[in-house]
């Protein structure tokens, strides 16, 4: 038995290094496979848009959209910063939102002066059936009353400047025209 006592179960240090590298690679793969919020928004809207019976390919959300997800608390901080803040409130449950969401982004891209001031559109996702924390207080604070969706709001110097609303189900051309006019009016008011 003495001749076998010298044999011990040893793990070579290289095995530890290989194990750590393997775990690090798994962590990196997991981190990079979790979609960013902007990618998730794109996928959610795109998937909802293509399921609509009469979807219009010209109105599809693109990966290069200008939306940045935000919650009510952070939105109020942005508004209080006195910068120009453009906010889109809606959700994939809203048929009108599906028709207009891509236009808000594409029209802002065309208005380079306004885009330079706003940089993006903040997206506040309004769930269809559950309450959004702080939302009712936000609506009351800015005297928004009974909002219909989609809502496109603009704030500057901490105050509400513009609210976009188009009644009914307008055609894409009419939506583009209304959003173009909205952005031009907004830019003229904040110059």
The rounded distance between the terminal residues' Cα atoms is 92 Å
The largest sheet, given as strand count, sense and whether it forms a barrel, is: 5 strands, mixed
Shape: elongated
- Whole-number total of structural domains: 1
> How many runs of DSSP E, i.e. beta strands?
5
Structural class: alpha/beta
Percentage of residues in strands: 5-15%
* Lateral arrangement of strands in the main beta sheet: 1-3-2-4-5
Unreliable spans are none
CATH architecture annotation: 3-Layer(aba) Sandwich
Helix content: 40-55%
Mean pLDDT: 85
Instruction: Write down the secondary-structure element order.
Output: HHEHEHHEHEEH
The gyration radius over C-alpha positions equals 25 Å
């Amino acid at each position: 038995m003495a001749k076998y006592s010298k044999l011990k179960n040893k793990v070579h240090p290289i095995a530890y290094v290989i194990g750590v590298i393997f775990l690090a690679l798994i962590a990196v793969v997991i981190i990079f496979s979790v979609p960013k919020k902007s990618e998730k928004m794109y996928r959610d809207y795109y998937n909802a848009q293509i399921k609509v019976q009469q979807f219009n390919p010209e109105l599809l959300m693109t990966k290069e959209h200008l939306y940045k997800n935000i919650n009510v608390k952070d939105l109020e901080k942005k508004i209080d910063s006195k910068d120009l803040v453009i906010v889109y409130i809606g959700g994939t449950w809203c048929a009108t939102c599906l028709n207009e969401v891509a236009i808000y982004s594409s029209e802002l891209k065309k208005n380079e002066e306004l885009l330079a001031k706003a940089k993006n559109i903040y997206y506040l996702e309004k769930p269809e059936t559950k309450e959004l924390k702080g939302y009712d207080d936000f609506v009351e604070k800015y005297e928004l009353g009974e909002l219909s969706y989609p809502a496109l709001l603009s704030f500057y110097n901490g105050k509400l400047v513009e609210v976009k609303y188009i009644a009914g189900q307008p055609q894409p051309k009419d939506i583009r025209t209304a959003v173009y006019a909205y952005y031009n009016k907004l830019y003229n008011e904040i110059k």
